[in-house]
Amino acid sequence: NADNVAENSLVDTPSFANSISQPLITQRFSADPSAHVFDGKIFVYPSHDYDAGVPENDNGDHFAMKDYYVYSMDSVGGDVTDHGMVLSVEDVPWASGQLWAPDIAYKNGKYYFYFPARDKEGIFRIGVAEGSKPQGPFKANPQYIKNSFSIDPAVFTDTDGKSYMYFGGIWGGQLQKWATGTFDANASATDLEKDNQPALAPKIARLADNMTEFAELPKDVKIVDENGKEFLGGDHEKRFFEASWMHKYNGKYYFSYSTGDTHLLCYAIGDNPYGPFTYQGVIMRPVIGWTTHHSIVNFKNKWFLFYHDTQISKGKTHLRNVKVTELKYDKEGKILEIDPYAA
Ligand code: FUB
């Protein structure tokens, strides 16, 4: 059973940057970790990878996930508590499958768990499920969030209490199919296929106070170079692909993301949640495996990068395992680039 990962199946990988860069969860596969601090602990909300026997393709059909599990820890490097399954596709009235990268937010005494899934027509949408505890369980709302589409929701609550959802992903994430504002099933399976035109942008929408609806129509999140110019579709090492995340450091807004087919985690800095965000550089070099997806969280005055690779499955793209490593800044607030396998 590919879902039951034996400890002794751990592959010998290159030496690690530090001792905590080992798989955090070994009892099942896990990916796309969104980490948050609640009640003085770190809670991790990952995707739950398993082997559905679906052949690998550019559409991501092999990522056939059907439920979510939650984990927590009192300290980074300490024991990880497995809180069990918190939501299953069977309990999501609008969804048909492919429960991809989730996130969570706390407001009004409730926890709001956000997740992408394909609807009954095969179109990715973003749903929300509510719970009273960070460890779940969560009950899905009957409909997906109106005007939501594509994948990888990341919800950021600013110091003024306003919450925003960043989302989107090209290729299997379908963002290119929404380029005209409505879903075009016949659009490209990858991107705009226009290397000399601006790349597709991730999206942002402020959440209503009830946290279950958008307060506005989604807008583009502009990522620009040092001259204020948007990246082009052909800038594969810098343009947005998927895996949005937002965190604030010294009053600045750090938007980070994956470049997908070039396998980098990058970041860009802005002065407000909407951007534009000016590209700064790479956070993490490629991991073993095709996808790279992360979150950044402050815990007890240290910053951590949660991410995944495919150490346990020995490189199987759709069977990933969550890891964590410390993230550091220089005096100017630049993130120091991480090589996941450096000694
Ligand atoms: O886990 C499925 C998809 O792979 C995620 O939604 C993407 O970010 C990528 O990690």
Automatic annotation (TrEMBL):
SUPFAM superfamilies named among the record's database cross-references:
Arabinanase/levansucrase/invertase
Matching Gene3D superfamilies, A to Z? Glycosyl hydrolase domain, family 43
Task: Tell me which InterPro entries the record gives.
Answer: Glyco_hydro_43, Glyco_hydro_beta-prop_sf, Glycosyl_Hydrlase_43_Enz
Positions of the site: Important for catalytic activity, responsible for pKa modulation of the active site Glu and correct orientation of both the proton donor and substrate?
152
Q: Which GO terms describe its biological process?
A: xylan catabolic process
* Keywords carried by this UniProt record: Carbohydrate metabolism, Glycosidase, Hydrolase, Polysaccharide degradation, Xylan degradation
Name of the molecule in the record: Family 43 glycosylhydrolase
